[in-house]
Task: structure prediction
Amino acid sequence: MFGIYLLDIPNKQIIGFYKDNHDIIYATKGMFIPLHLNYKYYQPIIISFMQKKWTKETVFEESKKYSSRSEFKRNKSGAFRVAYINGWLDEMVWLVHPVAKPVKWIKEAVFEESKKYSTTNDFNLKNASAYTVARKNGWLEEMTWLKRKYVVRGFWQLKENVFNESHKYNTIKEFREGCSTAYYSAKEKGWLEEMTWLKRANCKPVGYWKIKSNVFKESHNYKSRKDFCEGCYLAYIAAKRNGWLDEMDWLLKANRKEKGYWNVKANVFAEAQQYQYKSDFQRKSPSAYASARLHNWLSEIKFDPKVSKGDPRGPIHIVYVYIDEKNKYAYVGATNDIKRRDNEHRNHTNDAVYKYFQDKGVQVPKYKILLDGLTLVERQREERLQSLYYRDVLHYILINNINLTGDNVGSLGALIKKWTKKAVLREAEKYKTPTEFFTKSAGAYDAALKFKMMNKNTFPWFYSKRMPPRWWNVKEHVFEESQKYKTWNEFFQKSPAAHFSARKHKWENEMTWLSRDQAPQGYWQNEENVLEESKKYTTRTDFFKGCHAAYDYASKHNLWKRMPWIKTKTKVNGYWTKERIFEEGAKYSTKMEFKRNAPRAYSLATKNKWIDEMEWVESDVKPMGYWQNKQTVMEEARQYSSRVEFRWGSTSAYKSAISNGWIDETTWLKRPQNYNLKWTRENVFLESHKYMTRGAFKEGCSTAYQVARKKGWFDEMTWLKKKNKK
Result:
């Protein structure tokens, strides 16, 4: 699938020729550049194939330079792979097997490590392996120097602890927001009344705002009705309901226009002249804009055209790398703000670069910028190419996940599936060749390499049709293969190796039976060609899907009038008059059908209340009490196979069946899988032990979570972490 060749390109320092999927690329000065983009300009000449053919003698000779298998694999991966596939490693007795590492975290080492931290949380974050050993062996209780972030189970059940915590606050509200667990424990046990040092909210007695004098007294604290509403909503609502606002002359009214003001054309035009752009008119005066749009006045108002200048910073994306030369590790990334990203790599404890260099006990090195001034599309592509270059050409081990790079992916931090051997085998069965496997399921392919599954024994169908070396260098073989296809594109898609050999040896002109799929350059700049192509289609949508290059030219030069066979579905402004709406409405028998098939006509009919005049259009809404009839509900329920389908398919009928107790009679409806599982206290607590946080508990088993929340059992589930609200 991969090949390395030597290229001779004028004025370029070439490292080699590289092939990734179907894209041919060359490497120069530590960078990858797509070859097909520069092929005509540079006209590279392939001199010789550089893939060394390892025989048993050369592999054994090479292996004697190293003292261990890992060193052999790291320095000569090609020879090592050949030895591994052919089973020669066992004969190389001079290569020492890797020695098993001694158990690092004995009790003394764990205790010594833990003394570097002040809290159990820091211990867990900065040395997870030692913390895990201590937790599993129950040594955390002996580490008295580590402070806990969370209290032990049952802490807030003691009155003394709750009272000590409450003394930190001045009001009930502060107590509730500062330590909700202690507050709810005090509330449940009736201790709040004893906490006299906590001030209560200054609530008005019941009926206070029904007294006119109280409302008027409060309103004098404000200058406008808006301030009154925001400052004391209850008093404002009481004044509004009782009609007292008109008597409050000291409160300024909102600057609103009288009803019908924007129905006058002169007023709308005067307002519109205050704005340069149509978007400003829409945003700053929505009522006037809506009236102008309703009355079709927008076409008469002149606005300046708004020209998009794009991003003033231009292409700003960067591809960079952090390198550990000693251990041959690298992290290739991309960003549009290198200072921010470098700060994250150096200081964020969850960052992959930070974790790697922290484990090695060294500082994060200075980054190296590989490419800059890239667009977003170029960034996504170049990030993958640079990752491949560092992994497969320079033989670095990547810290970053290469499956999160490439076109339409980028480093988005998506969750990658964890592949097992069985899952990889099932996935590989979907593909016919290793190239197709790599292209369509890169994650599974990488896992197959990791598990050493890419061989004839595991995937025999990948290698059954593989040609012997130099097969496609023979002209007769290439010609025989090409005659199976009709076009050059089909030839390239189904036999890329033969296609590449044909281009390499310049045999294309002799293959007259293969037609070109692409039109010659400038073909769609001719009006006659565009008009001829358009005759194949009846609508603009079909034209665009069938030949977007011709469509773009027709749209740019406004050739639609010369194409009467191309129909348009877009109605002109003001098309929907009352007569046309009634004509359209006569096609449908229900309102829902009318709305679904002609939404614009239905909207105008509803807005202008013409829908009431369409007596033939029936309403789909059921009359009051329709679902209180048992027979009707049962007939509706028989249309579904499960209770879930019934619930979502006909909510009103389902609710009626529940409230009237008819649901148990619908024996043909399947129940949810966990319907008979009773969430007793014991079952809920057992289920909650599977999770670390309340959020994970809620997501993993929402029914048990809701029972625990309603019963107030969360205070006892001290193993479930929750987000602190400050």
